[in-house]
Write a structure and sequence with these properties.
By secondary structure, the chain is mostly helical. The protein has one domain. It is 64% helix and 4% strand. Strands 1-2-5 form a 3-stranded antiparallel sheet, with no helix packed on it. A two-stranded antiparallel ribbon has the order 3-4. A hairpin with a 4-residue loop joins strand 1 (3-7) and strand 2 (12-16). The radius of gyration is 22 Å and the shape is globular.
């Protein structure tokens, strides 16, 4: 047991290694269990028509969940300061960078080179990249005394971001570049950068994003179909229209579990990027509200852990992991509901995908470890000045 006591004028604060955040753990497991139920419902028909097995996707997702839970438990016992080691951080960053470049050597899948085939499943290095980016940025910011200095504080963070984005945009995977950028922005905010510098980054980011969209015709086509879905209802707007139909069918209370019509090969990627549309169709607005509440609970617990961690690196690490979850949930549900242009991001802990499930669970194992070293305030402690 590692214990230290710090007294203030109003209360006694105990810094101790204790059990991890059990409510957070239960919430993660509950969302994963819910995800397995929805995976069965969303993928059963497609599993039969494409693989001759209605349980094909469910069985694989259950295995990914099991592997991810092992990762969660193991990493929950590895002290978070382990990732503060500069050599380990550099090796992890270069490893993900190399793997992302390696994807370019394999044949494209759906006109994109984002995966490394490993037999049982395809490894998507950018899923690892999200959290390696968080660790790298937390390292830089915790070692920089003056994050309000543009050159000393912000530029090194931007270099780490840009280098990781180079092979990602070559895949091409603009949606992941956007997620990287948003995560970096949130962490710069948490790191104490100036508001004027962050506004400058917003303008710069908007210009770069517009340029990247204009470079590829299909990207500008997605913006057009987002603004006017009826312009190409059988082409670029097809998924968006079918997803909106699913949400519309759901109404307030939904069609009932396993009674989605859009999953009958009308809506592509119903087990993956658009599974939230199937949830909305089967469980309705009330079901989606409950799911959002569960995600909000995860974000709240993550923010609480970050706020209570006495170590700056731990604060940034917890805040970064939490921000990745929050941003990805917003992107996925925003796209499925038609509120955002198509991006292709999974719904954490629910969408089908081995890399996503394993990496997110492992990342939350790190978050649970940070929770072991948070401040514990004794409500019954006497005032030190009494």
């Amino acid at each position: 047991m590692e214990t230290a006591v710090r007294k203030t004028a109003k209360r006694t604060v105990t810094l101790t290694r204790h059990g991890f955040d059990f409510p957070l753990f239960i919430a993660v497991v509950a969302i994963c269990a819910f995800g397995l139920v929805m995976m069965y419902s969303a993928s059963y028909y497609y599993g039969i028509t494409s693989h001759g097995d209605g349980l094909y996707f469910l069985k694989r997702q259950a295995i990914f969940f099991g592997i991810g839970m092992v990762g969660l438990f193991l990493l929950s016992f590895v002290k978070f300061t382990f990732y503060k080691n500069g050599v380990i951080n550099i090796l992890a960053y270069l490893g993900v960078l190399g793997l992302t470049f390696l994807t370019l050597a394999f044949p494209p899948v759906n006109e994109a080179k984002r995966w490394i085939p490993l037999g049982f499943f395809n490894l998507q290095p950018t899923e690892l990249g999200k959290f390696v980016l968080v660790i790298s940025l937390a390292n830089i910011m915790s070692r920089r005394v003056n994050m309000q200095n543009l050159i000393v504080g912000i530029v090194p963070c931007l270099i780490v971001l840009v280098v990781l984005c180079i092979p990602t945009i070559m895949q091409p995977n603009l949606s992941m570049v956007v997620l990287y950028a948003l995560t970096t922005y949130v962490m710069l905010y948490l790191g104490g950068t100036k508001r004027s510098h962050r506004l400058l980054l917003i303008v710069l980011g908007a210009v770069v994003l517009a340029a990247l969209i204009m470079l590829k015709g299909y990207r500008s086509g997605r913006i057009t179909s987002f603004i006017n879905p009826e312009s190409d209802p059988t082409g670029s707007s097809y998924q968006s229209i079918q997803s909106r139909i699913a949400f519309g069918n759901g109404g307030l209370f939904g069609q009932g579990l396993n009674f989605s019509r859009q999953k009958l090969n009308f809506l592509p990627e119903r087990e993956n990027d658009y599974i939230s549309a199937i949830i909305g169709e089967e469980l309705g607005f009330v079901g989606m509200l409950g799911l959002l509440a569960a995600y909000f609970f995860l974000v709240w617990r993550g923010i609480t852990i970050a706020a209570r961690c006495p170590d700056k690196f731990g604060k940034l690490l917890a805040g970064g992991i939490t921000s990745v979850l929050a941003i990805q949930v917003v992107l996925n549900i925003g796209v499925a509901s038609g509120a955002l242009p198509s991006t292709g991001q999974t719904l954490p802990f629910i969408s089908y995908g081995g890399t996503s499930m394993i990496v997110f669970l492992s990342a939350f194992g790190i978050l649970l470890n940070v929770s072991r070293y948070t401040e514990v305030v004794s409500k019954n402690a006497k005032r030190s000045d009494e």
